[in-house]
Give the backbone structure.
Amino acid sequence: MIDILFYIAAGAGVGLAIGLTGVGGGSLMTPLLILFGFPYNVAIGTDLLYAAITKAGGMVSHTRRKTVEWRIVGYLAAGSLPASLLTAQLLSSFFSDSSEYQSLLTRSLGVMLVLTATVILLNGRLRKTADTSSVKTGEFLKRHNHWVVFFAGIFLGVFVTLSSVGAGAFCAAILLVLYPRLPALHVIGTDISHAVPLTLIAGLGHFILLGNVDFMLLGCLLIGSLPAIHLGTALASRIPGNILQTTIATVLLAMGIKFAVF
């Protein structure tokens, strides 16, 4: 019973942080579960389904507001969903036990945490760079952006499945660079609307092919986080989000280096 209350409290803490800062749950929840002593594979598999459920409400909200670029979502998903399924299938086929691919998950988690933390820390500069990108770069992306988005989707499909991190802030950064004129709200709506099917497919792959989901843990995390996300959103206007984002990004960067190197 104490463990259940502890997991609910952990879900509430992450949910509050998501509501306050907008930082994705995957980059926070997976390292937290690992620190709790859950195996890497279970932490990642469970967090993927957690992310799909918690982001679903955001997708519905953005769809109602018409702030989702479904064409871009389609190009991303065309690359990410098959790549996610193939990644889970390869893990199931080539490894007989989760301990055999733990180092792969660990390194992937570290790399994606570092990339996500860097994106959060450089968010403002990234926006300015996207706005002032060179003419040649802009023309190249304009001519080939569909293919670039497709291959970006493949990258996300592989590494989100291996780490549960990257479907949020990192994907948004890709969209920001490829579509600098896209309104910020549309970037967020498109990012979330792609993250839901990606994390759902990746999570189901972990469950069906690898058995890496703890549903009791998932239920506890959702009980704590869903109301906390709404509370954090309500409080966001009263607390300086930039400071919280910088603090969280610094912690993620340190953990990412630890997982990637050690």
In short: The CA atoms of residues 30 and 58 lie 20 Å apart. The mean pLDDT is 84. The radius of gyration is 18 Å. DSSP finds eleven helices and no strands in the chain.
